[in-house]
Design goal:
This protein has one domain. It has 24 helices and two strands. Strands 1-2 form a two-stranded antiparallel ribbon. About 0% of the residues have low confidence.
Length: about 650
């Protein structure tokens, strides 16, 4: 679709021939899956504890640090085993199964699904606090009773902790968690099938780079470096840079005389700009995260350039709006026009165009698969699975208050968003991506809220709390895992079983650990935003929406159409002119908070270094330097996760990395 997929910078061995079950002994497959499940549950426990107690996020990214860390430990242990008892060591495909299981399930316990599902079942009965009427009473019959914890004492103890002599009321949670889990699993299945539908086109025809998968492929020895990867001094030089920075930041927390560096270097450029119109840029920073520098070195220059170029264009828009009298820094309620909302809606319009452009090339293959043609490049099972999973969600919506239309609109909006963002992750390796244009607000803006029932408004609100902020969409993980499976030549059936079991284990494990620690400590004492902020804030906004119904917004429509026009124009430039060396993908995340505060500076540095190396050293020099930048990624992940693990073991929170 775009030029970023035409030439892959580093090619891995392509999968050849059909898999044979004889090549994958059952005992090795069982061992890999069982070890993977053990690591998934261990990571689930560490993720939940470190997030709830210490507000650490080790799996909330497109390349979950916790997953890579436990895979790193597995590779190290396997190397030791190979030296001691070579026949007992895992083969490369077994290591690949373990990584896929860790990677695909890592984000589930945190905000991605687990914590939000638990909170959706209990927050309406507890908030607002301090004498206010709980949202569940204000909403009346809008929320089906089977999606809420009905035991008032179970609700209180969840947030405030168990009283002496009380035990965790597991039974009160069975029905509501089961109800929400059905929807979550159906959506997960739909996104997984969508990834399978897109996989052949993106991986084999358009040659999308998938830079986030280069490190795990090298770690297991499937990449171009093979086992030499671990012996390359450039790898460990790169490893030492972020490792030292994180180490100094951690030691500073215990010994203040040690200089503080930290994980991300940030220059607050706009901090002193406090008067109009420059105060519209007062949050403008230049962030340098060496992990992002490492990833950006690996990606196509057009995609890397689009990340920082369009972010600067976004900043220029804010300044121009401020000069015109519409300052994004103005206090709420002092202006009738919010330039940030306009920009977000423009980005959504471009999202729709780019998502449509991605679906168009595979539509013919989908129809061939639907007809059952044997040479269709899209698996027929993926097409049927996608339709069945969406049908299950619509049936669930009908049972949950006859909300079929709101859920259908929500899913259409969500797919339009995550397709374009999924391509951005696959092509640009964006480590953290979020969207200001969430499905609930878009539906209210484009169709109004006059036609919606109270139950429909609640349904949109709850779904938006769960998956509307599409930073951790399962589609991103499923697409990258398709690339990993393809390049690592993993046995498809073993891989499918392992991935399915890991998703179930992570979700059930998340429920267990979240409830366990919440009842022990009291969820109100946790700083993790899904438990104490996300759902209550959504419910507060829901009450406002119910009291102030609105017609469709001309402003939202005009911004969306303007963004669609910009998306078409950028797509045309990218396809028609070789001199236009900027991908349109960066436009849809230009105003992202994560891009603003953590990504764009590192993307600029990685793009600049990569471009200079290719120009003056050529591809041979580029390839020789590649282990150094992979080391930047690995060092950041391993040292940071080691810090988090030690914190949970010794019970002391260190530096705010």
């Amino acid at each position: 679709m775009y030029r970023e997929g035409i030439a892959q910078q580093v090619e891995f061995p392509a999968a050849q021939g059909r898999e044979r079950l004889a090549d994958f002994p059952w005992w090795r497959a069982a061992r890999a899956v069982l070890w993977g499940l053990f690591l998934v549950l261990t990571l689930c426990a560490l993720t939940t504890h470190s997030n709830l107690v210490y507000q650490r996020y080790i799996t909330a990214s497109s390349l979950p640090s916790g997953a890579v860390f436990f895979f790193f430990l597995t590779v190290v242990l396997n190397g030791i085993l190979r030296r001691l008892r070579a026949p007992w060591a895992m083969q490369r495909w077994e290591l690949g199964i373990v990584f896929s299981m860790l990677f695909i399930s890592a984000a589930i316990p945190q905000a991605s699904i687990g914590q939000t599902i638990v909170t959706l079942a209990v927050a309406p009965q507890y908030y607002p606090r301090r004498g206010g009427v709980p949202y569940a009473e204000q909403l009346g019959d809008a929320i089906p009773a089977w999606l809420l914890v009905g035991d008032g004492e179970a609700v209180r103890a969840f947030y405030e902790g168990l009283s002496p002599g009380q035990t965790i009321p597991w039974g009160a949670w069975v029905i509501p968690l089961a109800g929400w889990t059905l929807f979550a699993l159906a959506l997960t299945a739909a996104l997984g099938c969508l990834a399978r539908i897109l996989a052949h086109r993106w991986i084999e025809e358009e040659r999308v780079t998938f830079p986030l998968m280069e490190l795990p492929l090298e770690m297991m020895g499937a990449g171009s470096e093979g086992d030499r990867f671990w012996r390359n001094p450039l790898l460990w030089l790169g490893f030492a840079i972020p490792g030292t920075m994180i180490g100094f930041g951690q030691m500073h927390a215990y010994f203040p005389t040690i200089p503080e560096i930290g994980q991300i270097l940030t220059w607050r450029i706009g901090e002193g700009w406090q008067t109009a119109p420059l105060n519209a840029l007062r949050d403008f920073v230049f962030p340098v995260w060496f992990l992002v520098v490492g990833v950006s070195y690996l990606i196509n220059a057009e995609v890397a350039a689009s990340i920082w170029v369009f972010h600067l264009v976004y900043r220029a828009q804010l300044l121009l709006f401020a000069l015109a009298g519409y300052n994004a820094a103005a206090p709420a309620g002092t202006t009738t026009f919010n330039p940030l909302d306009w920009i977000h809606h423009m980005e959504f319009g471009a999202c729709v165009v780019l998502s449509g452009a991605m679906l168009a090339p595979v539509w013919g293959e989908v129809k061939r698969a639907w007809r059952g043609e044997p040479d269709a490049r899209v698996p027929r099972g993926a097409v049927w699975g996608f339709l069945a999973a969406n049908g299950a969600m619509l049936l669930w919506a009908q049972l949950a208050g006859r909300n079929l239309l709101p859920v259908l609109l929500f899913l259409l909006m969500l797919y339009a968003i995550v397709l374009a963002l999924g391509r951005m992750v696959a092509s640009g390796g964006v480590y953290l991506v979020d969207n200001g244009y969430v499905p609930e607000r878009l539906i209210h803006g484009l169709s109004g809220s006059l036609w919606q029932s109270q139950s429909g408004l609640w349904m949109l609100n709850a779904q938006n709390a769960l998956v509307g902020r599409a930073d951790m969409s399962f589609l991103y993980f499923a697409l990258n895992d398709e690339k990993f499976r393809h390049e690592a030549r993993l046995p498809q059936r073993v891989h499918l079983v392992g991935v399915a079991l890991s998703i179930l284990a992570a979700l059930l494990g998340a429920y267990f650990f979240i409830l366990w620690w919440s009842y022990q400590y009291g969820a109100v004492n946790f700083a993790a935003w899904p438990l104490t902020w996300n759902v209550p804030q959504h419910l507060q906004r829901l009450i406002g929406d119910m009291g102030a119904r609105r017609p469709p917004s001309a402003e939202v429509w005009s911004a969306t159409l303007a963004g669609a026009g910009i998306g078409l124009f950028l797509l045309y430039l990218n396809r028609q002119f070789t001199w236009w060396r900027i991908s349109p993908l960066g436009f849809v995340i230009a105003s992202s908070l994560n891009v603003s505060g953590q990504i764009w500076g590192g993307a600029l540095i990685g793009w600049l270094v990569s471009s200079l190396v290719k120009r003056y050293g050529g591809m041979p020099v580029y390839r020789r330097l590649r282990p150094f930048f992979l080391g930047l990624i690995l060092g950041d992940i391993v040292v940071y996760c080691t810090v988090v693990l030690l914190e949970s073991l010794i019970g002391v929170r260190g530096a705010g990395l």
